[in-house]
Amino acid sequence: MGDISKTTEGEARKLQITGGSTYIISLPKKWVMHNQLRKGSVLILREEGDGSLSLAPSGLAKQEKKEEAIIKVSKKDESGVIIRKAVSAYLVGYNMIHVRAQSQESLSSLQRNALKDFARRYLVGTEIVIDTPNELTLQVLLSYPELTVESALRRMSIITSSMHRDSMTALREIDHQLAKAVIETDTEVDRFNLYIIRQLKLAIANPRIINEIGLSGARDCLGYRLITKSVERTADHAVSIAKNILLLNKYIDDETLTKIENMSTLAISAFENAIDSLFKHEFNLAENVIERTKEIAKLEKEAVLSSQKIGIEEIANLRLLIESVRRTAEYASDIAEIVLNLNIESVLD
Known about the structure:
The chain is an alpha+beta fold. 30% of the residues are buried. It has helices spanning 29-34, 60-64, 79-91, 109-122, 149-173, 176-205, 218-245, 254-280, 283-293, 296-307, 312-342; strands at residues 4-7, 10-13, 16-18, 22-24, 43-47, 53-57, 68-73, 96-101, 126-132, 135-140. It is flat. It contains eleven helices and ten strands. It folds into three domains: 4-63; 64-140, 2-Layer Sandwich (Translation Initiation Factor IF3); 147-347, Methane Monooxygenase Hydroxylase, Chain G, domain 1 (Up-down Bundle). Helix 7 runs antiparallel to helix 11. Helices cover 58% and strands 14% of the residues. Strand 3 (16-18) and strand 4 (22-24) form a beta hairpin.
């Protein structure tokens, strides 16, 4: 027991050498017995991003991996209930999701079509591999290297930014068709949102895959989860702007439009800079975003005062639209604050 001692970090064991060139370290007997290991058992060593080594029995990763989920359905179940169960199974990492009718029943055409449509539109990397009257099976085929969390978030952010800019164009021209296109585009944002959540949940449950999804540590997982939520909410506000435009039938006067566009310019540029600061790991750029977004309250007040000139029947919709532009700036500030937390070491002595 001379090579073992207790520390606040756990057991400290001395590295030994045998045969003149082979380094060895003893393993805790309790851990060996718990994992049912014996002489000749295969262990998997993995070097982590921080230089530490992780040790696991061979096959442990496979045991941890969630393969198949079975969702039992009756004819009385609403399509929305079935979809929410399937989404939950997708998010926690199941690769095969079986939706089966109970007893001798069959899935209704409404249930089957609703689930198939949702899977095709929202679940990235998912294919329908079984489609029979009493069973619908979804299989997740996408592997981590094909689409990292960072790549998915980049695409999600670009789409969100485009949605906001298109909504402003729709406001300027009272273009209802463009406003409807913004609303429809939100599906793409939701697809990437669900995919990123799935990947981050898998990484938290199994830290050995954090590097495989393109992140460097557990702190990144939390940061990216919060940022993804803010991006998704920003897209929701672009949709809200578009929906309020559909209720407007008259062109906005130039003064009011200019003030709303000034708000929009600040909000969306702050959002784009906040995302850039994340990917470039730039603390100062994130700090600049936070300072700039403090101006949004003043711009909002000016826009609201100017909006009083329009007809009483449309003023409520315009006020809601202005509020969504403000919320876009606030989410940009939220993202920037998270970037500060992720990169604080870069400005410490």
